[in-house]
Amino acid sequence: MERKAFNWGVVLGLALLGFSRSVGWALNKGLSFPLLSSYTNSAFVRGTILALEGIIGLVVPPLLGYYSDTLQSKHGRRRPFIMIGGLLAGIAALIVYTAYAMGVPLWGFTLSLGFFYLSMHLYTAQYRALMPDTVESGQRGRASGVITLFEWAGNLLLFGLAGYLIAKAIDETGESEGIKALAQTPYLKIPFLVTAAFLIGAALFVYFVIREPKAPKIEENESLGDYLKSIVENRDFLKFYTAQTLWWMSFEFIGMFLYGILAYILHGSATEENIKAVTSLGLYLMALFNVTVLIGALPGGIIYDKLGRRLSIIIGGVIFALPQIWGWFITSKTEIAIALGVAGIGWGVLMAASYPVIGDLLTKFEREAFTGRYYGFFEATRSLPVLLAGVIGGAIVDLAGKNYRVLFPIGALLVLLAMPMVWFMKNLDEISEKEEEPRNEEWKEV
């Protein structure tokens, strides 16, 4: 069969959507933890509240991804979810700012965060599924590299903007604590306004500009129970989903508690004052991490298509894990920056190489009609680590006497445990455009 030309228009449209969503998640990563520090000094409480994103992401994407597969609409299977979710997410970002600015109690601020997480996850699976829906196997690594590049550029934009605004606020107010200075100026609203604009704008762009391919005919639609059961029965899917849970949990240990880690390493304790004092530094370090993720993303996508799926994931995982092992010993800003920079390169390779795996496995087993539900579960295994990292990570830190540094070696161990699971996936490197048609009975292999 003749291969279709690589559709740059569709890929760049999806990349724009990924960019906007990353701006939203970066807003959460960059500002939610320090804002919560105004309410409580407990790592466990802060982590548990941030873990709401994991609870919602564990349930909503698999369910809505499942139902989007069979949606019969002239507007497509994915785009209605994308438009509604994007609009609500933009509104939710404004609600989070308004709740904090009005001084609502902790439960009110928590509810505003919960609404934001729910809105973002209304279209998570549909966004992910649209790439394999529109890009052929054999070209998905390149598409993933471009999309991953834009996703992490969105993070970079928000972290850089927030860091700049905090520095500007400190200069104007004379307040030494970054987030406290930002809250005293009109600048606090700017990241939320920018995020809302991108979320709403990108969702509308995808809805009105991108056209979905004709939905494949589903002869026998599996029930929700059969769909979940099939994931366990196919060992390649089970291995990949488990491995992804582990490396995302490692990432969330660092991403969720970075301010606590910085405060502990540089000031000896993660008190409210110390956390707010390192907020500006944390945002700049997140921006640095995202710069190096961009460096790793495009080569990661190319390596996936050229060098092999299994090996590309292993390379990214090892590069990501090694700086975390070193993290137990670092003592200065420079060492932290170097460690996060190197880890970012590995993470970029890992993200670009892991995104297309589900789509390629579905191609292998002739189940391309089901990208929504399987990418929904894909996102659940990215959200479960948020729940686990928030609750378990916070508990570990409290049990370790508020020693946030302990999260580094634990994170490295989780990544290294994931690598053998990927290596022993039977069909991962057998997928190519030249393959003979697979047999359906291969699906439930053991």
From TrEMBL:
The chain crosses the membrane at residues 48-68, 80-100, 106-125, 146-167, 187-210, 245-266, 281-304, 311-330, 336-362, 383-400, 406-425. InterPro entries: MFS, MFS_dom, MFS_trans_sf. SUPFAM superfamilies: MFS general substrate transporter. It holds the Pfam family MFS_1. Keywords: Membrane, Transmembrane, Transmembrane helix. Residues 1-214, 244-446 form the Major facilitator superfamily (MFS) profile domain. One of its GO terms (molecular function) is transmembrane transporter activity. This is Transporter.
